[in-house]
Amino acid sequence: MAYRETEKMRQRKAQARNKIIECTWECVAEGGFRSARITRIAGLAGVATGTIYRHFESREDLFAEIFRLATQREVDKVAEALSVPGNAVERLDGALRKFAQRALKGPMKAWALIAEPVDPKVEQERLVYRKAYASLFEKAIQDGIAEGSLSEQNARLSSTCLVGAISESLVGPLSPTQTNTTPGNDNNQDELVNAIVCFCIRGLTDSRS
């Protein structure tokens, strides 16, 4: 008789997989991908290291899955901010502001997602999600051109520039080696967010066709 997996066994496997994912993200949130050791993840999840490799073919596959899940949450937040009432400039301002504020609120998590040196599989996912952000911004820019709140411009190129500008501007402040800013200083963070958003919005509104 052929082996058939029971529903209870499937649920147990799913629970173990979810626990591994949860504990991996906990490690990444504390110290980035480089601190997420398989032995530590297994210990936190209460499983053997071999169990992890039954769910994920490699460490890189596990990290790529973690990256996908974590980044999708951030993409969803940007999409949510872009869906509120208002003209395109107001919505883009709110979305860029939310992106920067969330990054600064969880600097280690944001560093891991935005700039930490990672394995090729994770870097590939990073490129996928940069495109996802750009697609959201491109649609908002197109809306702004149509409604007249933004001048005629290459919406695709402008959206790519937005992603690059806001990501690059956060690399220094998010870096674990950064010592020029005081962690938790809300005034410094507000000033930084305002400067980043102002630069991005000016780039869009002052563009020339």
TrEMBL record:
<dbReference type="GO" id="GO:0000976">
    <property type="term" value="F:transcription cis-regulatory region binding"/>
</dbReference>
<dbReference type="Pfam" id="PF17932">
    <property type="entry name" value="TetR_C_24"/>
</dbReference>
<dbReference type="GO" id="GO:0003700">
    <property type="term" value="F:DNA-binding transcription factor activity"/>
</dbReference>
<dbReference type="InterPro" id="IPR036271">
    <property type="entry name" value="Tet_transcr_reg_TetR-rel_C_sf"/>
</dbReference>
<dbReference type="InterPro" id="IPR050109">
    <property type="entry name" value="HTH-type_TetR-like_transc_reg"/>
</dbReference>
<dbReference type="InterPro" id="IPR041490">
    <property type="entry name" value="KstR2_TetR_C"/>
</dbReference>
<keyword id="KW-0238">DNA-binding</keyword>
<protein>
    <submittedName>
        <fullName>TetR/AcrR family transcriptional regulator</fullName>
    </submittedName>
</protein>
<feature type="DNA-binding region" description="H-T-H motif">
    <location>
        <begin position="37"/>
        <end position="56"/>
    </location>
</feature>
<feature type="domain" description="HTH tetR-type">
    <location>
        <begin position="14"/>
        <end position="74"/>
    </location>
</feature>
<dbReference type="InterPro" id="IPR001647">
    <property type="entry name" value="HTH_TetR"/>
</dbReference>
<dbReference type="Pfam" id="PF00440">
    <property type="entry name" value="TetR_N"/>
</dbReference>
<dbReference type="InterPro" id="IPR009057">
    <property type="entry name" value="Homeodomain-like_sf"/>
</dbReference>
